[in-house]
């Protein structure tokens, strides 16, 4: 018989592993640059943009959603999610230019 608690625990464990793998795909400087961008009008440099695209869309949006699910940042979720989507689109275009 499947224990729902084991299933829930396993899902959380896999999610945690996924987040850890995602965060290792970007330098701390770029992580900070992109994090600040979601709240403020700062420029994301080309290097960080390319790192973002290399990290992958699934990682980017999983991490962004995780940030805005926190009570600390929930009030900024609408604008932050929009900014993160716009940033992804801009960086994807930039990355295509480098291919």
| Share in β-strands | under 5%
Mean pLDDT: 87
Percent helix, as a range, is over 70%
Shape: globular
What's the number of structural domains?
A: 1
The helix/strand series, from N terminus to C terminus, equals: HHHHH
The largest sheet is:
none
Question: What's the N-to-C terminus distance?
Answer: 50 Å
Characterise the protein shown here.
The chain is globular, with a radius of gyration of 15 Å. The protein contains five helices and no strands. The chain has one domain (4-98). α2 packs across α3, α3 packs across α5 and α4 runs antiparallel to α5. The protein is mostly helical and 99 residues long. The model is unreliable at 1-5 (pLDDT under 50). It is 75% helix and 0% strand. The longest helix is centred in the C-terminal third of the chain and has 22 residues, at 77-98.
Question: How would you concisely characterize the structure shown here?
Answer:
This protein is mainly α and 99 residues long.
Features:
75% helix, Prolamin-like domain-containing protein, Prolamin-like, signal, 99 residues, mainly alpha, disordered N terminus, single chain
What is the element layout, followed by pairings?
Layout: H1 4-23, H2 28-37, H3 46-55, H4 57-68, H5 77-98
